[in-house]
Amino acid sequence: MANYEQSERLKQLPPYLFVRLEELANAKRKEGMDMIDLGIGDPDLPTPDKIVKSLQIAAEANENQKYSSSQGEKDLREAVAKWYKRRFGVELDPDKEVCITLGSKEAIFNISQAFVNPGDTIIAPSPGYPVYSGASTIFNEAKCVLVPLRPEKDWLLDVDECPTDAKMLYVNYPNNPTGATCDLPYLQKVYDWCQKTETILCYDNAYSEMCYDDYHAPSALQAGHDCIEFGSFSKTFNMTGFRLGYAVGHPDLIAGLKKCKGQIDSGAPIFIQKAGITALEMYNDDGAPPSVIKNNMDIYSERRKTLVNGLRELGFDVVMPKGTFYIWFDCGMPSDEFVEKMIDIGIIVTPGPGFGASAEGYVRMTVTEPVERLKDVLIRMKRASIFGPLAADNQTQ
Ligand SMILES: Cc1ncc(COP(=O)(O)O)c(C=O)c1O
Fold it and tell me: Which domains does the chain have, with CATH numbers?
């Protein structure tokens, strides 16, 4: 038999967070428990019909069944550029400043492959999306400096705490896992710091369209074009399984990404890119989302309020997020203990340390279940006496 021992790099990668949670949940399901899954960030709402129909039609045409260009089809790149103009007021050259990607995750990883040498420093927020400190760092033999996000700073990464000799910085707002958001002056500060320290700014804007009330997430390119920004169709249009995203920014960064993709994946399927065009063209000329997206956000918003208010009543100190579909809070005990207690009552939540050790004591819930199921979550927690640290009175009732 051949030698199937994994490479040293692969061995260093932690198992992907949700694999372990899924195993625990499956064991419970086998016992007949009705599991409510607030774990992974995968929208339960369907992809809008119009997008699915355009995918079906596009898949039938022979010219859409061939290899795409590694940088993505020109018509989708143009649609992305047009959308940036409408949504952020940012002008982009679709030939030089836009690359279509297989979801944003691929590009978040490939940008490091393209620009990071062994021993270079990557700065990543902690807690943060695991790919920054995981695959991006490990597969490039880089050094990852984790910069803590703190509740007293509204979970905003403070560039004054970052090393000034790094190659690359990952920043992400609206933020996974904390649900924190930022404004343009904050992004301008981060951008200017990256200019001064010659650090590549990788701005992860995968949740740019998941905003509530009157909050609209900015783009890093509003601060300047000397950076790269990743966007995604996944959460905006409930298209996680389509694996479609885009990267926009400095032509040299886009060229590096394109070179990687030419060797690795050869670009997203053309028929999926056609569906992406339909999705972006649903936006109004003034950058406002179409009604189907607004309705989805109204649904998430109602769920968010149900869960946040219910958790507050149980004695947890929870911030009402202005973006994403994540609820992030101090669970008042070690995260793993809380997660296990919740699994015992049939609820899957994500432990904070899955996003970085500094998030010990925190958990994340995703509002991917209907309001009635979320009410059930709260009832089950109350019955099992899972109260927050602020609920001393409740616990004795
Ligand atoms: C912060 C962040 N960035 C990027 C992604 C990747 O999303 P996708 O590859 O589906 O675009 C996710 C997915 O959960 C995420 O949370």
Answer: 8-46+290-389 (3.90.1150.10), 49-281 (3.40.640.10)
